[in-house]
Amino acid sequence: MSYPRKPISKILLTLSSFLLLTFMFATNAFAASQLEQDAGPYHVIMQMNPETPMANQSGTMTIIVKNKATGQPVTGAKVTMSNPTMMGSNSNDGGNMAGMNMSSSMDSQSGMVMQEQSSMGSMSMEPGSYMMQNMNFNQPGQWNQAITISSSLGQSTVNFPITVGKSGPDYVLIGSVAGVVVIAGIIAAALKGRKK
Q1: Which domain holds residue 3?
Q2: Domain count within the chain
Q3: Radius of gyration, alpha carbons of the chain
Q4: What pLDDT, in 10s, does the model give residues 93-123?
């Protein structure tokens, strides 16, 4: 069975476009989210990876600190994160991150110090980047994370909201893989029919 050349070209172009959009959506879903706030002399950028952390799954928080007046990175600062609290809950009920023993590793007065990073693996990071890896929230919901920055510019605290989702199957990844398989099958069938 032979197919006219023009419709196959249009079908392949349409399927290629759909495949590209699927990959772009999947890549976007795994990108880090970014929030920005000013606090005293600082401009603070918070990035979460994955964008929406899931309950009982590890994530990474990166804090980028800049001088609000000059836009220059603030290096050598002490950046600490306090015990996160669940919004709408009593902070005395221990609304803390699972997987981190807050009672022993976090001092309620000073918090947990975030490590300054210049690179992550082979990827270089922006100067003034401070990172906390393996963040693990014990339940889904809206959380508040306070970050305190101390340097020669002074000390300020900024609060960032974090939305934690329910853990479960990653439907974006499953849908993307299924879409790729279906599109590859259609393209293969169209090319096979074209050769006959």
Answers
A1: 1-30+167-196
A2: 2
A3: 23
A4: 444 443 343 333 444 445 789 989 887 667 7
Q: What is the DSSP letter of 91?
A: G
Distance (Å, whole) CA 142 – CA 83? 14
Helix-helix angle 5-29:171-195, to 10 degrees: 160
Write down the pTM of the prediction.
0.61
Q: What is the mean pLDDT of residues 162-189?
A: 75
**Distance of alpha carbon 127 from alpha carbon 11, whole angstroms:** 47
Query: What tokens does 193 get?
Result: 């029919």
Residue 98: helix, strand or coil by DSSP?
coil
Q: What whole-number distance in Å separates Cα of residue 87 and Cα of residue 149? A: 22
Q: How many CB atoms within 10 Å of residue 153? A: 16
Task: Give the containing element (helix H, strand E) for 134.
Answer: strand 123-135
Nearest to 108 by CA among 126, 96, 124: 96
15: nearest Cα among 185, 193, 183: 183
List the one residue out of 74, 70, 43, 69 whose CA is nearest residue 158: 43
- Do 175 and 114 belong to one domain? no
Given pLDDT bands bounded at 50, 70 and 90, which one contains residue 76?
very high
